[in-house]
Amino acid sequence: MNPETEYRDGLDELASHYKHILTLLGEDAGREGLIKTPMRVAKAMQVLTRGYGMDAHKVLTDALFKEDYNQMVIVKDIDFFSLCEHHMLPFYGKVHVAYIPNGYITGLSKIARVVDIFSHRLQVQERMTLQIKECIEQTLHPLGVMVVVEAKHMCMQMRGVEKQNSITTTSDFSGAFNQAKTRQEFMNLINNKA
Ligand SMILES: Nc1nc2c(ncn2[C@@H]2O[C@H](COP(=O)(O)OP(=O)(O)OP(=O)(O)O)[C@@H](O)[C@H]2O)c(=O)[nH]1
Protein backbone atom coordinates (compact mmCIF):
# COMPACT_ATOMS: atom_id res chain seq x y z
CA MET A 1 0.00 0.00 0.00
CA ASN A 2 1.29 3.42 -0.92
CA PRO A 3 1.26 5.39 2.39
CA GLU A 4 0.60 8.65 0.53
CA THR A 5 -2.70 7.48 -0.92
CA GLU A 6 -5.40 4.90 -0.38
CA TYR A 7 -4.11 3.08 -3.47
CA ARG A 8 -1.68 0.20 -3.72
CA ASP A 9 1.77 0.38 -5.25
CA GLY A 10 2.03 -0.09 -9.01
CA LEU A 11 -0.65 2.46 -9.90
CA ASP A 12 1.48 4.30 -12.50
CA GLU A 13 2.46 1.05 -14.20
CA LEU A 14 -1.15 -0.10 -14.24
CA ALA A 15 -2.21 3.21 -15.80
CA SER A 16 0.46 2.93 -18.50
CA HIS A 17 -0.88 -0.52 -19.43
CA TYR A 18 -4.41 0.88 -19.67
CA LYS A 19 -3.11 3.65 -21.97
CA HIS A 20 -1.68 0.95 -24.22
CA ILE A 21 -4.97 -0.98 -24.07
CA LEU A 22 -6.87 2.13 -25.20
CA THR A 23 -4.63 2.30 -28.27
CA LEU A 24 -5.10 -1.42 -28.94
CA LEU A 25 -8.87 -0.88 -28.78
CA GLY A 26 -8.57 1.67 -31.60
CA GLU A 27 -8.74 4.84 -29.53
CA ASP A 28 -6.54 7.92 -29.65
CA ALA A 29 -5.16 7.71 -26.10
CA GLY A 30 -3.89 11.27 -26.45
CA ARG A 31 -7.25 12.93 -27.09
CA GLU A 32 -8.45 15.30 -24.41
CA GLY A 33 -11.30 13.20 -23.05
CA LEU A 34 -9.02 10.23 -22.49
CA ILE A 35 -5.95 11.89 -20.99
CA LYS A 36 -6.90 11.02 -17.41
CA THR A 37 -8.72 7.79 -18.25
CA PRO A 38 -5.83 5.32 -17.81
CA MET A 39 -5.19 6.58 -14.25
CA ARG A 40 -8.92 6.63 -13.45
CA VAL A 41 -9.27 3.04 -14.63
CA ALA A 42 -6.16 1.97 -12.73
CA LYS A 43 -7.57 3.49 -9.54
CA ALA A 44 -11.00 1.96 -10.14
CA MET A 45 -9.50 -1.49 -10.68
CA GLN A 46 -7.45 -1.18 -7.51
CA VAL A 47 -10.62 -0.33 -5.59
CA LEU A 48 -12.53 -3.21 -7.16
CA THR A 49 -9.74 -5.63 -6.19
CA ARG A 50 -8.87 -4.15 -2.80
CA GLY A 51 -9.95 -7.37 -1.10
CA TYR A 52 -6.57 -8.95 -1.94
CA GLY A 53 -4.87 -6.82 0.68
CA MET A 54 -7.38 -7.53 3.43
CA ASP A 55 -7.69 -10.24 6.08
CA ALA A 56 -11.35 -11.25 6.45
CA HIS A 57 -10.63 -13.60 9.36
CA LYS A 58 -9.09 -10.75 11.35
CA VAL A 59 -12.16 -8.57 10.74
CA LEU A 60 -14.30 -11.13 12.55
CA THR A 61 -11.86 -12.16 15.29
CA ASP A 62 -11.30 -8.49 16.20
CA ALA A 63 -15.03 -8.13 16.97
CA LEU A 64 -15.96 -11.32 18.84
CA PHE A 65 -18.30 -10.91 21.79
CA LYS A 66 -19.06 -13.60 24.34
CA GLU A 67 -22.82 -14.08 24.38
CA ASP A 68 -25.17 -16.94 25.32
CA TYR A 69 -27.63 -16.30 22.47
CA ASN A 70 -27.92 -19.49 20.48
CA GLN A 71 -30.73 -18.87 18.01
CA MET A 72 -30.30 -18.07 14.34
CA VAL A 73 -28.71 -14.69 13.49
CA ILE A 74 -29.52 -13.53 9.97
CA VAL A 75 -27.99 -10.66 8.04
CA LYS A 76 -29.81 -10.54 4.73
CA ASP A 77 -29.76 -8.40 1.58
CA ILE A 78 -26.08 -7.48 1.80
CA ASP A 79 -25.39 -5.76 -1.53
CA PHE A 80 -22.21 -6.72 -3.30
CA PHE A 81 -20.36 -6.04 -6.55
CA SER A 82 -17.64 -8.34 -7.79
CA LEU A 83 -15.74 -9.09 -11.00
CA CYS A 84 -15.96 -12.49 -12.66
CA GLU A 85 -12.54 -13.96 -13.17
CA HIS A 86 -13.37 -15.12 -16.69
CA HIS A 87 -14.17 -11.80 -18.36
CA MET A 88 -13.41 -9.29 -15.57
CA LEU A 89 -16.98 -8.01 -15.95
CA PRO A 90 -19.14 -7.24 -12.93
CA PHE A 91 -21.47 -9.65 -11.23
CA TYR A 92 -23.62 -8.18 -8.51
CA GLY A 93 -26.52 -8.92 -6.24
CA LYS A 94 -27.22 -9.84 -2.64
CA VAL A 95 -25.68 -12.06 -0.01
CA HIS A 96 -27.73 -13.52 2.84
CA VAL A 97 -25.88 -14.94 5.84
CA ALA A 98 -27.18 -16.94 8.80
CA TYR A 99 -25.30 -18.45 11.69
CA ILE A 100 -26.20 -20.04 15.01
CA PRO A 101 -23.76 -18.81 17.68
CA ASN A 102 -21.88 -21.19 19.92
CA GLY A 103 -20.88 -18.84 22.75
CA TYR A 104 -19.66 -15.99 20.56
CA ILE A 105 -21.33 -13.47 18.28
CA THR A 106 -19.65 -10.95 15.97
CA GLY A 107 -20.48 -7.36 15.07
CA LEU A 108 -23.21 -7.33 12.41
CA SER A 109 -21.32 -4.87 10.20
CA LYS A 110 -18.38 -7.28 10.23
CA ILE A 111 -20.39 -9.86 8.28
CA ALA A 112 -20.96 -7.23 5.57
CA ARG A 113 -17.25 -6.34 5.69
CA VAL A 114 -16.35 -9.98 5.09
CA VAL A 115 -18.65 -9.99 2.05
CA ASP A 116 -16.90 -6.83 0.81
CA ILE A 117 -13.45 -8.37 1.19
CA PHE A 118 -14.22 -11.55 -0.74
CA SER A 119 -16.26 -9.77 -3.41
CA HIS A 120 -13.49 -7.22 -4.10
CA ARG A 121 -11.40 -9.85 -5.85
CA LEU A 122 -11.63 -11.65 -9.17
CA GLN A 123 -14.16 -14.32 -8.35
CA VAL A 124 -16.56 -17.01 -9.37
CA GLN A 125 -19.82 -16.88 -7.44
CA GLU A 126 -19.44 -20.41 -6.08
CA ARG A 127 -16.00 -19.74 -4.57
CA MET A 128 -17.09 -16.43 -3.08
CA THR A 129 -20.03 -18.21 -1.42
CA LEU A 130 -17.73 -20.88 0.01
CA GLN A 131 -15.12 -18.36 1.22
CA ILE A 132 -17.69 -16.31 3.13
CA LYS A 133 -19.07 -19.45 4.76
CA GLU A 134 -15.64 -20.82 5.67
CA CYS A 135 -14.48 -17.50 7.13
CA ILE A 136 -17.45 -17.37 9.52
CA GLU A 137 -17.08 -21.07 10.34
CA GLN A 138 -13.36 -20.81 11.12
CA THR A 139 -13.56 -17.68 13.26
CA LEU A 140 -16.88 -17.97 15.15
CA HIS A 141 -17.02 -21.78 15.36
CA PRO A 142 -20.82 -21.52 15.26
CA LEU A 143 -23.30 -24.39 15.60
CA GLY A 144 -24.01 -23.81 11.92
CA VAL A 145 -23.61 -21.29 9.13
CA MET A 146 -25.36 -20.81 5.80
CA VAL A 147 -24.66 -18.38 2.98
CA VAL A 148 -26.93 -17.73 -0.01
CA VAL A 149 -25.82 -15.52 -2.91
CA GLU A 150 -28.15 -14.24 -5.65
CA ALA A 151 -26.45 -12.49 -8.55
CA LYS A 152 -26.69 -11.21 -12.08
CA HIS A 153 -23.60 -11.63 -14.25
CA MET A 154 -22.87 -8.90 -16.77
CA CYS A 155 -20.79 -11.32 -18.83
CA MET A 156 -24.13 -13.05 -19.52
CA GLN A 157 -26.03 -9.80 -20.05
CA MET A 158 -23.78 -7.51 -22.09
CA ARG A 159 -22.10 -10.14 -24.24
CA GLY A 160 -22.01 -13.86 -24.92
CA VAL A 161 -25.41 -15.43 -24.35
CA GLU A 162 -27.02 -11.98 -23.69
CA LYS A 163 -29.63 -13.05 -21.15
CA GLN A 164 -30.76 -9.98 -19.22
CA ASN A 165 -32.88 -11.50 -16.49
CA SER A 166 -31.29 -14.70 -15.37
CA ILE A 167 -30.29 -14.81 -11.73
CA THR A 168 -27.77 -17.30 -10.37
CA THR A 169 -28.29 -18.57 -6.83
CA THR A 170 -25.57 -20.37 -4.89
CA SER A 171 -25.56 -21.60 -1.33
CA ASP A 172 -23.28 -23.32 1.12
CA PHE A 173 -23.94 -24.46 4.66
CA SER A 174 -22.63 -26.48 7.57
CA GLY A 175 -23.55 -27.82 11.00
CA ALA A 176 -27.18 -27.30 12.01
CA PHE A 177 -28.02 -26.20 8.46
CA ASN A 178 -27.49 -29.78 7.30
CA GLN A 179 -31.05 -30.25 8.57
CA ALA A 180 -33.60 -29.36 5.90
CA LYS A 181 -35.85 -27.80 8.59
CA THR A 182 -33.15 -25.29 9.62
CA ARG A 183 -32.34 -24.39 6.02
CA GLN A 184 -36.06 -23.91 5.38
CA GLU A 185 -36.38 -21.56 8.38
CA PHE A 186 -33.56 -19.43 6.96
CA MET A 187 -35.02 -19.43 3.44
CA ASN A 188 -38.46 -18.47 4.82
CA LEU A 189 -36.94 -15.59 6.76
CA ILE A 190 -34.98 -14.22 3.80
CA ASN A 191 -38.05 -14.53 1.60
CA ASN A 192 -40.26 -12.78 4.20
CA LYS A 193 -42.43 -15.86 4.64
CA ALA A 194 -41.99 -16.14 8.40
N1 LIG B 1 -19.87 -21.19 -12.62
C1 LIG B 1 -19.62 -19.91 -12.88
N2 LIG B 1 -19.46 -19.54 -14.16
C2 LIG B 1 -19.22 -18.23 -14.38
C3 LIG B 1 -19.15 -17.27 -13.39
N3 LIG B 1 -18.91 -16.08 -13.97
C4 LIG B 1 -18.84 -16.30 -15.29
N4 LIG B 1 -19.03 -17.61 -15.56
C5 LIG B 1 -19.07 -18.39 -16.80
O1 LIG B 1 -17.76 -18.73 -17.17
C6 LIG B 1 -17.87 -19.35 -18.44
C7 LIG B 1 -16.60 -19.18 -19.23
O2 LIG B 1 -16.77 -19.98 -20.35
P1 LIG B 1 -15.86 -19.91 -21.66
O3 LIG B 1 -16.47 -20.80 -22.69
O4 LIG B 1 -14.45 -20.17 -21.27
O5 LIG B 1 -15.94 -18.38 -22.04
P2 LIG B 1 -16.80 -17.70 -23.20
O6 LIG B 1 -16.40 -18.25 -24.53
O7 LIG B 1 -16.64 -16.21 -23.05
O8 LIG B 1 -18.30 -18.17 -22.85
P3 LIG B 1 -19.69 -17.46 -23.10
O9 LIG B 1 -19.95 -16.55 -21.94
O10 LIG B 1 -20.68 -18.59 -23.15
O11 LIG B 1 -19.61 -16.68 -24.39
C8 LIG B 1 -19.12 -18.76 -19.06
O12 LIG B 1 -20.07 -19.80 -19.18
C9 LIG B 1 -19.61 -17.73 -18.02
O13 LIG B 1 -21.02 -17.63 -17.98
C10 LIG B 1 -19.33 -17.71 -12.04
O14 LIG B 1 -19.28 -16.95 -11.08
N5 LIG B 1 -19.55 -19.03 -11.85
From TrEMBL:
Domain GTP cyclohydrolase I: from-to ranges: 16-190
Amino acids binding Zn(2+): 84, 87, 155
Enzyme Commission code(s) on record: 3.5.4.16
Key words of the record: GTP-binding, Hydrolase, Metal-binding, Nucleotide-binding, One-carbon metabolism, Zinc
Gene3D superfamilies: 1.10.286.10, 3.30.1130.10
UniProt superkingdom: Bacteria
Enzymatic class: hydrolase
Annotated catalysed reactions: GTP + H2O = 7,8-dihydroneopterin 3'-triphosphate + formate + H(+)
GO terms, molecular function: GTP cyclohydrolase I activity
Pfam families: GTP_cyclohydroI (PF01227)
Record keyword GTP-binding present: yes
Known pathway: Cofactor biosynthesis; 7,8-dihydroneopterin triphosphate biosynthesis; 7,8-dihydroneopterin triphosphate from GTP: step 1/1
PANTHER family the record matches: GTP CYCLOHYDROLASE 1, GTP CYCLOHYDROLASE I
HAMAP family assigned: FolE (MF_00223)
Family: Belongs to the GTP cyclohydrolase I family.
Oligomer status and interactors: Homopolymer.
The protein's name: GTP cyclohydrolase 1
Protein source organism: Xylanibacter muris
Organism classification: Bacteria, Pseudomonadati, Bacteroidota, Bacteroidia, Bacteroidales
